[in-house]
């Protein structure tokens, strides 16, 4: 019910008035308060006045969920923010979302005092954005917390340690762009913690976890020193560093750091050297995805995609391999042409590999060599998917015109469409004939409607 209608109903109905004053879900957002910023009109005071009025009439009892999202155009005083939190965070509250905007990040300290006297021990989900949080030694207020999400929050490693020191129920910890963190230490008594997400905390140097049941770790940023003690991390996603050679870092360092991996996703936007062959193994890895965002200024045109077989060789139990390639600039590479001779490397039978997908296949000679290597050495291969169009929404699916709600495929440049048509010819000439009868081949072609540029497509056939 819109806010104005709720207010009118409260004026004529005592029952409705009582239910409103004890309403368990308080959502203070621009949309919920029916505020629309118009050109030349200031509505910042309207936000403050409406929140003040609602909390003044609310009894403060029975609140389960608080969502307070201050719009960017509002200049709300810090005393109002603290007063709102004090009035809304009461014993029994379970979810708190508190979101400011950038100018408050170092200006407003989230008041730890509102969590004292039993008010914080019922909170299961806490989400803070653009503020500072400074808990001190002895902080004992979040014993029921299962999920903590901090985005652009000023908090040091010691302060975060105080915050989670008694959060024995914590299951998921999300830290995004918390740039005061240098050392992240997870204590062993957080036995329920299963998922850790760390994104672009640019000052972070060390992650040390002793949580015994941590199974999923997602990390985006520059490489840091990592230690997981007795944790058996099984699912790992790392990457997006601007520093070069993340693939080399992953294959040389990760096997000894995360020894129980079963799924691994690696993302890189800056590779200067080819992936090296290594002796260490991912002994339990079953699923591997490598995502490359290629711009020739950070990715040499001569990059050898065949070198990625080092990951296959380091993963004896690998069942699924996905290589996803997105170009963000001019496509410069060593194209395969004519009767090119494919390089032969020492045979290594990958008898567990069943599914392989190359999303964003193009005409680089080493790309063709990698595909041929898979066909020749993956003795248990069941399905090979080669998609000439990169589309993040179509992982595992080469269909077109049915992914977006608009009924259209993703828009791509003419050069990429031409490259996709060339890639179809390369697939027909060098790959189709090598596909065993036992392997299902899926080829993703440019969309006849969205990618039509008047190019005649080669007919694909194993015959």
UniProtKB/TrEMBL annotation:
Matching entries from Pfam families are given as: LRR_At1g61320_AtMIF1
Q: Which domain of life is it from?
A: Eukaryota
For this protein, the record's InterPro entries field holds: At1g61320/At1g61330-like (IPR053772), LRR_At1g61320_AtMIF1 (IPR055357), LRR_dom_sf (IPR032675)
Please report the stretch or stretches of sequence annotated as the At1g61320/AtMIF1 LRR domain.
54-448
Protein name, please?
A: At1g61320/AtMIF1 LRR domain-containing protein
Give the species. Answer: Urochloa decumbens
**The organism's taxonomic lineage, starting at the top:** Eukaryota, Viridiplantae, Streptophyta, Embryophyta, Tracheophyta
